[in-house]
Amino acid sequence: MISFLDLNGNRVELSFEKDTFSIEARHVLVIAKHQNNWLLTLHPKRGIEFPGGKVEGKESVIEAALRETIEETNVEIKNVEWFAEYLVYEEKPFCKAVFIAEVGHIEVESTNFETDGALWLSTDDLLHNNNLSFHMRDAGMKAILEKVIALEGKWNNREY
Length: 160
Known about the structure:
alpha+beta, Nucleoside Triphosphate Pyrophosphohydrolase, nine-stranded mixed beta sheet, 4 helices, 9 strands, NUDIX domain-containing protein, NUDIX_hydrolase_dom, hydrolase
């Protein structure tokens, strides 16, 4: 487990082992890659980040991951796999599940986004971008990205 303070000063614990925390994950983050580019979105206030958000109603975390990715990027994902989770100790602590996924279908015509839509970055562009949201710049995201980038062959060796 990795412990750190996020850029808002909250204590965070990150685990790459499932069911580490007693709090159920009700937030999601999705990491997907297509044709050597990572799927991100440009949030109008926070900056560039992976798609994600809150679980709504009785949906599962995977259903939330699918929905949030479509809402924020208009990209359908498939083969969604649990990757990590982290617990943020805010006034009301919450747990976020991190998923890796493959890109299924990219809808380019619609503009019905909660964000500024899909943004595709190479690994180098992602690692050196100055417009990343605060979520993307903390020690936890660096650890997640390090592990995900080590799996680049997972995306590069599959057909979409």
